[in-house]
Amino acid sequence: MDYLDFFKNQLSQLKVQGRYRIFANLERIVGKAPYALWHSPTGPRQVTVWCSNDYLGMSHHPQVIDALQQAVAQYGAGAGGTRNIAGTARSHIQLENTLATWHGKESALLFSSGYVANEASLYALGTNIPDCVFFSDEKNHASIIHGIKSSRAHRHIFKHNNMADLEALLRQYPPQTPKIIVAVSVYSMDGDMAPLADIITLAKRYNALTFVDEVHAVGLYGPTGAGLAEQLGLSEDIDIIQANFAKAIGVVGGYIAGQAAVVDYVRSFAPGFIFTTSLPPATAAAAHASITHIQHDSTLRQNLHTNVNELRAQLRAEGIPFMDAPSHITPVVMGDAIHCRNVTDVLLNTYGHYVQPINYPTVPLGQERLRITVTPAHSTQDIRGFAQALRAALIATSQAAA
Ligand SMILES: Cc1ncc(COP(=O)(O)O)c(C=O)c1O
């Protein structure tokens, strides 16, 4: 085989299909959000960012930066080992205790990312629980899919948010068969939410464990920002809550929270937890500072939700159809990868608005889209300017195609 030829061919197919990923080289500068410096092919240029997962801007928050800097000065840059071998620091333990309390659970466990938290936990559960069967929503994140697949446990994929389908699958098994229902509370690409109360009801009826990914909900929902389960008063009924620090918390890393025995089990059996260096203590300290702020001050999340309403009002005013999701995520479906790329190119090059096109396999073919995330830092003027530019970009690209 000519390996290089193979790689080049595969890449050129992606290019022809409009699915080749082009990274925007950005400098998100503290104090300047929502603007960033884009290192364009023709030189640096200021742009407005409309697709960051730093939903509340916590990665630039002075308390978070302070905590990080102080912890780096005190503890250094790295953890120095796996959790078991010299890599457990006071900051890890403090963060795990705070996370457990935040979610109303006995215990919590840190991972290097949200991806690893899902993959490692589901792998450990599926591999080691005898005859375990997973019931996984068809729109679950890649990390959930990989964790379940790699465990080689038996699995069923239920139709998205479809409780009748889930129940029909659960019903096939006797109560004593171990079952785990896996869902995401806020789906990242459609912005819709899982029917958590119904999932819990089914779990209780069929004696299943529940595993819920709150990655796009922590920091944003619930009286203390602990997520959708907190908002709905359901935290206690979910067996394992998984989330991360990379979105609204503004740092990096992932975790699970649950009853002490489940968390200790994952800690003891998950290779993705055991055989990797722990998060830098400074990262844990920064995440802790961010969560503490979020727990005690809801201003940022209130401002975020106000801006989501403003964005949707402006899109309506410009006649732009969007998915009116119940969350903070606003998808505008383009339906074709090349059209999607053309629109985002015009937005960026002509109007200085950066939205990354979302293509297959992140979304199904034909569902290519802009996934717009407004933040508390965007002004009404920014939002109006963006909606007007998007309308102009849609007109320009449809004229060019005609
Ligand atoms: C639903 C969901 N779960 C997990 C992850 C992975 O989180 P992380 O970026 O911390 O690895 C993501 C990231 O995009 C996500 O959208």
Structure write-up:
The protein has 402 residues and is α/β, with parallel strands linked by helices. Helices cover 43% and strands 16% of the residues. The chain contains 14 helices and 14 strands. Strands 4-10-9-8-7-5-6 form a seven-stranded mixed sheet, sandwiched between helices. Helix 8 links the parallel strand 8 and strand 9. The longest helix has 22 residues, at 380-401. The two termini are 43 Å apart. The structure holds pyridoxal-5'-phosphate (PLP). Pyridoxal-5'-phosphate is lined by residues 113-115, 118, 141, 143, 184, 188, 213, 215-216, 244, 246, 254.
Largest beta-sheet characterization: 7 strands, mixed
**Spatial strand arrangement across the major sheet:** 4-10-9-8-7-5-6
Task: Assign an overall shape.
Answer: globular
- Total strand count, please? 14
Strand content: 15-25%
Query: Any ligands, ions or cofactors bound here, and which?
Result: pyridoxal-5'-phosphate
Round the mean pLDDT to the nearest integer and report it. 97
Helix percent reads 40-55%
Any idea what the radius of gyration is? 22 Å
Low-confidence stretches: none
